[in-house]
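batch_manifest entry 22 of 60
target: Aminoglycoside phosphotransferase domain-containing protein
source organism: Cellulomonas oligotrophica
requested by: lab member K.T.
priority: normal
notes from requester: please return tokens only, no post-processing; we will run our own comparison against the previous entry in this batch. if the run fails, retry once and flag.
--- input ---
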Amino acid sequence: MTDEVELGGGNVNRVVRVGDTVRRTAGPWTPTVHALLAWVRAQGVDVVPAPLGLDADGREVLAWVPGEVGGWPVPAWVWDLTVLRDAGRTARRWHDATVGFAPPAAVWRSPVREPAEVVCHNDLAPYNMVHADGRLVGIIDVDMASPGPRAWDLAYLAYRMCGWCEDMPAPPGPAPAERLAVLLDAYGTDRAPEPAAVLVTMRERLLDLAAWTDAHADATGRPELHDHAAMYRRDASRLP
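--- output ---
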């Protein structure tokens, strides 16, 4: 087997690259997520990795998506309005392609939220996006997906890409509300929630994420993650 190269940035799983594949810890949710990836790819949404089953160690295997991931330090392309529009359009394509996916024995890693309009990615952010040749070309790390409202994904995407996040402050330029308008317009106003509704959901999303992060920090013995939880609460308190 080709040597394993550990990929940084993950706070939930150990992820490695092996040749042109990515391997990560599998769980009861993995068959459902792989079926979901196959479902949306069959509908032409090829920005998500192809599922390739399990390896001899029981890890899930996914196709490698080449390009640059928007981790830390945050690359300049994250703030390009072209990329923001790409993110909105890609979120819409993903959401629309998941409508109708409802296997009878589905197991989800994240809670199902009502109204279950689509299958949410649940972690749509630049650190789960792949950029190449000036465009957004991939969405990765789909293992936290679960059914929920479109606004749940859009709220977190806006939090990370519109300038409301403490550890990803936007550079000088359009204000967060202006960036949000660009994002929602690209997503499509026929399905996008109103900006005020996105902010209400963003606050709910951040408080939920803070509680989850505190619990995950305790369960995994990683006390540094409590700092992340505190940041989410501060950001929630600052929202307009």
